[in-house]
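Moderator note: this is an archived Q&A kept for reference. The question asked for a predicted structure of one protein chain; the sequence and the answer are reproduced below.
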Amino acid sequence: MMRTTRTLLSKAHFWERVRHVGEGSVILELDSPRKHVATLRLVNPLRRNALDGKMMYELGQAVEELKNGYENGVALVLRGCNSESVSNAKSNFFCSGMDLSLVKQGHVATSEDAAEMSEYMQSVLWKLRTLPLVSVAAVQGGAVGGGSELMSCPDFRIMHVDSYVYFKQTTLGATPGWGGGKFLTDIVGRSKALRILLRGEPLTAQEAFEIGLVDKVVYPSEKCDRNTTADMDEAITMFLDEIVCGALDTHGHVEALRRAKTVVSVAANPNDYLGNIKDVFNIERSLFAGLWGSERNRNAIKNMK
């Protein structure tokens, strides 16, 4: 009984403990790159855009703002900071997952810690996925570990040709813990998802496109250097125009587009949308937390550079 009480107290204060941990940030830009479109930008270049405690908290806050305060929006772009906005080559990442300094500092060291982090991130990403906004992950660089789960959350994915996605959780003696197991399976189907998770190998942008994980591969234009933000900016604009903004410019029915997204969310996963998603995530969280902190998991993280 004492163990249960201690766990509940820990859960109640866990995110209060980590919300100020780290130097990264999540920046929400409304009506950017155009009116009715928001951009969520992950900024932690020295850690390859890994999510520290502060960023996880800010991501949750940003999603709540989009859910409750951006009533005129129809689309959301999720991006990582890149080498053209900071002067460090390591920033060529969409997201490298959880900042492992959280583990090394003891904030996510135990199975209980992992379960609490998993529950929070699952909740945040599910809210993002079911927002009445058409969401697009714009991947430039690596989407690794938790970053691959984050990439799998939005409705669509576009990826620069030089980028890659790497579901490496099993190589760390772990499993997806942010909802990525469900998101990946929803996108590519059971057998392909299983193969990706079991093999634990990086997928190029072209390979991800061929299996249906990515909707568009972005190639460098003749006027731009390879792997530049200009290529991705142009690709995002064109993709949004094709999927949603073109329709908005034609008939201007913001609320109709928002409700159409909700209709598809419910139709795709009616039981999940109405509450049973908690059962799916409970199982994923239990499997993830049961491996976190094991000897194999600790050794794998210790050996990471």
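Archived answer notes: Residues 56 and 303 are 24 Å apart (CA to CA).
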